[in-house]
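Per-residue structure
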Amino acid sequence: SDDEFREKFYGDLINSTAENRGHGSIAKMFDRVLEKEFPENDQPEGSGGSSFNSSVADQEAELETVARVTSDKTKKNDTKEANCIISLHFFFSFKSQDSDDMATLIDQKDNTFVMSNKKSKYPVLQVDFRLISDLVVLVVSAAMGGIIFSCLGQPVIVGYLLAGSLIGPGGLNFISEMVQVETFAQFGVVFLLFALGLEFSLSKLKIVGPAAVIGGLLQIVILVFLCGITAVFCGAKLSEGVFVGFFLSLSSTAVVVKFLIDQNISNSLHGQVTIGTLIFQDCAVGLLFAVLPILGGSEVLLGMVSMGKLLLTLVAFLAAASLLTWLFAARLLKLTMKLSSHTSELYQLAAVAFCLMSAWCSDKLGLSLELGSFVAGVMISTTDFAEHTLSQVDSIRNLFAALFLSSIGMLIHVQFLWAHVDILLASVILVVVVKTIVAACVTKAFGYGLRTSIIVGVLLAQVGEFAFVLLSRASNLNLIEGKMYLLLLGTTALSLVTTPVLFKLISPLIRLGSLMQWF
C-alpha cells in the first residue's frame, strides 16, 4: 500500500527527533533505496563460474606454495608478527621501491607473476602502472639509442637492439613485466609485414616465386643435411643435428625488412627474392614446430598427421583470402574511403582492424601472425588503395617496429655475450659464411646474376628472432642439451646485433665476388 511504501522509503525521517535525524537523513534514505536496488548477492563478481575451489576440484590447477611480495606502507615494527604462513601461501611484507600497491608472486621455480588486476567487488577501471612505466622506459630508450646511432652514422636497428639489451634482464633490469611488453611489441612485426604486403607486387612474385619457394625449401634441406652429417661425423645425435639445421635456416624477417624499407630497395629484384624467401620461412615455422615432437622421440605418425593438417589449413587460408579479395576487398575499401572523406581517422582504423583480423585468423588456424598480416597487405595491394593505406599505417608501423626490435634486444644478455665472446664470435662467423654461401648458390642456380645472389645471401645470413621460440620448444622436449642451448642462444643474439654491420659489407663483398669471377 501507499503507507507501506512511504514507510520503507522514508523510514523514520518524518517522525524522527533532532537527535535521531542523522539516521533518517536524505543520504540514509538513498542508501536504503540503493541497497534494495542492488542487493549483495546481485553484485557482479567478474570471473563468472571460475573460482579457486572449482579450479582445484576440476583439476585445472594445482596447489603450490608461493611468496607474495607487497609494497606495504606500514611501519617495520608492525609487520614482524604479521609475517606468518597463511594456508599454503607465504606472505612477506617489506617496503618496496615501487610506488604502486601491486603485489608480486614468486613460485618455487623463481617465476615472477605481477598481480596487476586485483579482484574487485564492483566493475572498476584498473590501470597497470608497471606496464605503463615499462613501456615508457622502452620507448625512451629506443628513441635515445636510435638518435645516438643515427648521429654516429650507424643503422638505427643497432641502437634499438642495444637499447633493449641495456634495459632488459641482462642489463640494468629496468623492465618488470617482460611478457606484457614483448606481447605489446609483437604488433611491430605484424605491421611490418602488413606494410610489406602493401608494397609487394604479385607480378614480381610470379617472377621470383620459384627462387623464393623452391629456393627457400632447398636452403632448409641443404642446411639440415649439412648439420645432420656433421653431427653424425662428430658423434652427436642425428636428431640434434637436424634440429640445428632447422634452427639455422631461419632468418630475421623484422630486421631484414626494416633494412630494405629504410634503404628503399624492397621493390628491387634482390629485395623481392629476399622477401619471398622470408615469407616462405615464416610459413615453414609452423611445419618446423610440427617436426619437433618427431625429433624429440614422439610418435612419427602423429607428427606426419600434424604436418598434413597444417598444409591443408595453409591452402584453405590462402584460397579464402583470394576469394575475399576478389569479392569484397575493393568494395569495402571504397566504402570506407567515402565515409572518411573529411577525416582519415576512420580509414586508418579500418586498415589496422583489417590487418589485425587477418593476423588473428591466421594465428587461430595454427599458422602465424606474420603470415596473416602479410596476406592482408597483399589483398589490399591488388586494389587502387594500396599507396593510400600505406601512408596511413606508416607511422604506426615505425613506432611498433622500434618497440619490437627493442624487445628482441631485451633477450640479449650483454654479460653472457661478453663472457663467451670468443666462441660465440667464431660461431657467428661460421654461421654467416655457411648461410651466405648456401643462399647465394641456391639463388645463382635459378639464373640470377652474381650481384643479386651475393646480396640475397648476405641478407639471409643471420639467425632470426623466431629461433628463440624454436629453441625454447626444443629445450622443453629435451631435444638439445643445456650447453648446446646456451651456444645457440648466444649465437642468435650476437648474429642479430652484428647483422646491421654485416649489411654494410655488401658492397665490398660484391666487389670481391666480381674479382673472384674475373680470376
In short: The two ends are 110 Å apart (CA to CA). The chain has a mean pLDDT of 76. The first helix runs from residue 2 to 10.
